[in-house]
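quick one, two chains, predict together pls
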Amino acid sequence: MTHPDDLLADYVDGTLDERARADVDAHLQGCARCREEVRLAGAAKASMAELEDVPVPFGVTGPVVVEAGKRFEQRGKTWDRFRWAAGLAAAAALVLVVALNLGRGDERNAASPAGASAGTGAAAEAGGGAADASATVPFQGIERQPNVNYDADGIQAVANDASKAVASAEKAGAQTGSGAGAPSPASSALSASERFADAPRPRLCIEQSGLPTDSPRDVLVRLIEAKFENQPAFIAVFAESPGAGQPADHVVVWAVSSKDCRILTTASFRIPQT
Amino acid sequence: MPERPARDEDLVRRYLSGDRAAFAALVERHERRVYNLALRMTGREEDARDATQDAFLTVLRKLSSFRGEAAFTTWLHRVTVNTCYDLLRKRQRSPLLERGDDDLPALEPPPAPDPADASSLSLDVRQALMQVPEDFRAVMILHDVHDLRQEEVAAILGVPVGTVKSRLHRGRVALARAMGLSRRVPTNGEPADASGSSEGTVSP
């Protein structure tokens, strides 16, 4: 028997013309298989109609809108209006820009938080920014910006910028470090805890806020002391990879109050894959 | 009468000619649709967030080459669906171990924020949808959930309308079976499941 498969979707939708509908009805009379399929298809359609829209979670499209604004900046058209990104005003704050991976913390590095690796970390960090020319994501130590007051857009802009920096560092690393042993940022860079070594207070504050500082999946790429919405803050920027030793795929920024170590805000951005 | 909202295509033109707010308006207008499409395609909130962000970034990047040959919404849907395909493929390729065992339970949809009756039904459908092959799933979501006409679905996916019709029907049957709605059909000379219904179906 030939089944009118090409008509059954429209039959269920009720969009067949009268004649085609009559043909299908006639077929259904004698065909249990098609009757069952029509019953199932109708039930599925009804179930799907019950699906309700959910609202878009906060922070999903914001980064894209920020990115859209930056294109203007690059074209030099609205440079002046875009100044908000860096924030304008005020006094001192600690902004820690760190990409931390909440909840995935210490799978192998369960070391006690404070100071365990401070010695080696400090030594390595003393070399400053690019400790080696490989795939490490550059880190310039704590950046003190006492007069910069970030807002949510500014924090987001920090995340967007950092994702580009990490992407180009990863790209450079992939080129120079070819072969099986190519260092990936997450494995060859100084660990987050080492990068924190010259900044014990921000580190402590970030730990107190509940964020992990020693996950092998997270690399601290910037640490800023500034303000967030007029509150003194540490801003930590982390490059976060899906697993230890893999290239980072997200940048996460946290702003933590330097007074009481509360998390003030966070932003994240995907790292463009080349 | 309220003022007529600007057409998508006009917003695109305005953005390209220097009106930065026009892009924000486009995002605001479509983000809910894009996010919910991605959520139903990928079945996971985390993936839906990534897919939504990626889709809009792709649109932003390619906006200058958007010629208006297709409607903006058609193009946006196409970008979103393709982004979801990429993400699903990537997820399949990357061994689950690498993602961490912690992620496995996420295959179960996350608990709904409010435990109303409707939402538990939604969870069942969402779960079952993930068992329907993605080409079929895309057709069903666009047509049955997002209420797009078959011709629009065909344009979005770049397939003939006939293909949309057959995927729609096969997909619906597969979904119902995945939801456990099938029952044994008395075999009066017609094998219930074996004839031609293998494509895209899930055995009861």
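Chain A has two domains: 5-50, 62-270.
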